[in-house]
Amino acid sequence: MNHLYLCETNPRCEKQVSYQEVKMSKGLPKRSEDYSLWYNELVKRADLAENSPVRGCMVIKPYGYSIWEKMQAEIDRMFKETGHTNAYFPLFIPKSFFSKEADHVEGFAKECAVVTHYRLKNDPDGNGVVIDPDAKLEEELIVRPTSETVIWSTYKNWVQSYRDLPILVNQWANVVRWEMRTRLFLRTTEFLWQEGHTAHATKNEAVAESIQMMHVYAQFAEEFMAMPVIRGIKSESERFAGALETYCIEALMQDGKALQAGTSHFLGQNFAKAFDVKFTNKEGKLDFVWGTSWGVSTRLMGALIMAHSDDQGLVLPPKLAPIQVVIVPIYKSEEQLAEISEKVNGIVKALRAEGITVKFDDRDTYKPGFKFAEWELKGVPVRLSMGPRDLENNSIEIARRDTGEKEFFNLESDLAQKISGLLDEMQTNIYNKALSFTETNTTSVDTYDEFKKVLDDQGGFVSAHWDGTAETEDKIKEETKATIRCIPLDAKEEEGQCIYSGKPSSKRVLFARAY
Amino acid sequence: MNHLYLCETNPRCEKQVSYQEVKMSKGLPKRSEDYSLWYNELVKRADLAENSPVRGCMVIKPYGYSIWEKMQAEIDRMFKETGHTNAYFPLFIPKSFFSKEADHVEGFAKECAVVTHYRLKNDPDGNGVVIDPDAKLEEELIVRPTSETVIWSTYKNWVQSYRDLPILVNQWANVVRWEMRTRLFLRTTEFLWQEGHTAHATKNEAVAESIQMMHVYAQFAEEFMAMPVIRGIKSESERFAGALETYCIEALMQDGKALQAGTSHFLGQNFAKAFDVKFTNKEGKLDFVWGTSWGVSTRLMGALIMAHSDDQGLVLPPKLAPIQVVIVPIYKSEEQLAEISEKVNGIVKALRAEGITVKFDDRDTYKPGFKFAEWELKGVPVRLSMGPRDLENNSIEIARRDTGEKEFFNLESDLAQKISGLLDEMQTNIYNKALSFTETNTTSVDTYDEFKKVLDDQGGFVSAHWDGTAETEDKIKEETKATIRCIPLDAKEEEGQCIYSGKPSSKRVLFARAY
């Protein structure tokens, strides 16, 4: 008999209903029935984020933000280990800056928030406040959608000689892109991100930097997010506006759609030329500086959620879980709680000494059954529970979130060591599960009919030959909604024929329907 | 003879002049001659920040940002230790939200950046891009000057029962206030800050929270910034727009002007009422929630710089120095450098093992004299240098930034222990120096003549009796430019007469001219 039945009481039995209870009162929709609804509900109910009163902007809630903080900490460490430092550039960009790089203005300036005034005044008719027409800006300011322009206009003053290079700078910032259709984390009008902007004396160095940062992103995704990714190069039409080459990492979500998780751009001398950033090289000659930029955003939160979670809620890889272990006491009397707490306090201490983050959920305002469901929804990797029988048996129940498996553990053995090993095992297991999913859902096809059938029946990545033209790419996108996610870095040289045009092709590229 | 003269060569002797050299080629202005110019030049030349192409907005440069990161890390840790978590709320606030709290709109909405459009288009006349008149927002959006309104509109959905309280949330964010006269770090149109916003079931709890956060700020200022502060309460006219009480910390700068370094507000039920945030209390009755908000900003960088620095440059307290120890090799041949480097590598390792951040400045593109001046300007607490004679003597030269003292240290003793002790001593010394300055420049006066004389001759804090009316406060401000910085928490009950009106007063308040 499972001792947990003791307390599977109705969580709504109390008079004062709390926000938590309202939120938990319905189960999640199933992925198989409505993946999109499942995602939205999960994000809200697991306290990750919610829509704000401002169209397209989200509120990142404390629990969601604490996961983002863990991501930030690891990414920031990896940046610093590769020689980068952080800085901060202005939120606003003068409108004229965008016009300086032709592709860039096409790609970005058109869907941006525009600041036109700097003052409000009391409405003469008494209806609150209105814009003060006397406070119109001479030149409109754009809320940054990305910061290449303002940063390169700054670098102009930082660079005179080769001795001022390289500049290896990153910033953590908010950016705004006026999206018409938004989804929490995946596509929001305002989002948080980091944007690296580097300047180099040689082309080779800049190319190497942009490739290095793609690998940094891939390593982060695989090692911390437990999310396998494909490393590759974007086709010309999917390239960043203003770049000569865009490197990317692409991941597969459980509904078979791909998600671009990070990009790194080799900018050539485009922005240096647009903002006149020259330096004297070792030979004493003037040359334009070479540039890169690279970024990941709160979109990674969306990827993390969609890559691993299930119908019960979030599944978090232990390395990014803000709470790795939750301990729930099961008791009927205050005396029992006191006995359990005493034992649990020792356990908490031992786990923390191993570097494990633990929460003892001794709230007396909620029942154990409610707590179990809440921590399951929130994806805490390991749940420990201790009840009266455990006290008798000197045991504790261990439940792991990824597989749902439970076991009783005798406390005469070393629990901290056990949990530490279990967390490692779970990290690997979650990665392997996602890897196996990605592999199973990557299909090589050689005809357009096969291509369409795989997309419709199974989804996933479709590996196919392509003739390298934007026309074919556009036609395929128009007819199937699939885009070229990337030309994988490890694509083999292989003679073939484009599935659409029949023209010759030397390697396969990865197509998918994508977020 | 000082062996450093070996290399005090002209830093401009090379052909390719770098940005560093241009920046270093002139000395700093003196504080005694032009304090304001000294500050501006120091901020720019020490690579802390510079003006951006966007009016009133600054670029925080990598070195400046690394100091801000150290501040953030400590403050964030202190917030978490007091039970707070981070979250993120939108950059934009609908205009109508401001009108909901009458004092707040008066205080903030009027000098804000206003977003009116969400799209640009190609200029039909071919001159870059222009606003698309079809993309006008129905309701203008304000770029947040502070987030009480958007946060309380969100809290409304988070709170139903007393069990949802307290909410202890902080956010790290950028905010915009359209300042007419700006100064790097001290007053900029955009700045970085944290804003805590908490919600409580009782008045007492909210008051206690706002007082607690004032003490957290004071502890941070004194322990990490080595900057003594006065803890106090603002007079009604200096209170935050929408608060019932504002607690603050005030510090004295070297020019005798005061600087408000942090504020914590007890908001009463003002924002709960404005946004209809009610909860069911333990007795089952509906009540409005009690609130607080509190913040510190990149203004702290200005305070840190002005509190301790000298005519040679920045003086950083060791606890906030991104580089605590710099090691400069002095050599004539590659062989000498190799010998020195080998020895230095061991030292670097030993210092890092003690948790000390060290930089070995082995750039071959700059001479030692140039490096000495650069690290002095940048405020690195300890400079070690090793030359050929040191190799012979198994010694190293230690120079401390705060006092300028130098000594030779025999490497047979434990250098790491020595430096570790020295850094602690310097942290204390810098604090004590600032404390002594603050004490020396705090004057009690009993007449208005004395008051004016002290303000003009010496500056600093002036402790005086005040009748408690806004009229008197305004008159004094108008006539002397001094404002009431705060009513100190530790002010003694003492019968006296207002220096201006002669009316009775029960305690002294602190006046000063302020930033």
A few lines on this structure:
By secondary structure, chain A is of the alpha+beta class. The first copy, chain A, contains 15 helices and 27 strands.
Profile the largest sheet of chain A.
11 strands, mixed
**Might you state the CATH topology name of the largest domain in chain A?**
BirA Bifunctional Protein, domain 2
Per the principal axes of the C-alpha atoms, what is the gross shape of chain A? Answer: globular
CATH architecture of the largest domain in chain A: 2-Layer Sandwich
CATH superfamily of the largest domain in chain A, by name, is Bira Bifunctional Protein, Domain 2
User: Helix proportion of residues of chain A, in percent?
Assistant: 25-40%
Radius of gyration of chain A: 26 Å
Low-confidence region ranges of chain A:
1-14
Q: Tell me the distance between the termini of chain A.
A: 45 Å
Widest sheet, order of strands of chain A: 3-9-10-16-13-12-11-24-27-23-22
Number of helices of chain A: 15
Oligomer: homodimer
The largest inter-chain interface, given as chain pair and residues per side, is:
A-B, 80 and 80 residues
Number of domains of chain A: 3
Mean pLDDT of chain A, as a whole number? 94
Strand-residue proportion of chain A: 25-35%
Estimated structural class of chain A: alpha+beta
**DSSP strand tally of chain A:** 27
**CATH class identity of the largest domain in chain A:** Alpha Beta
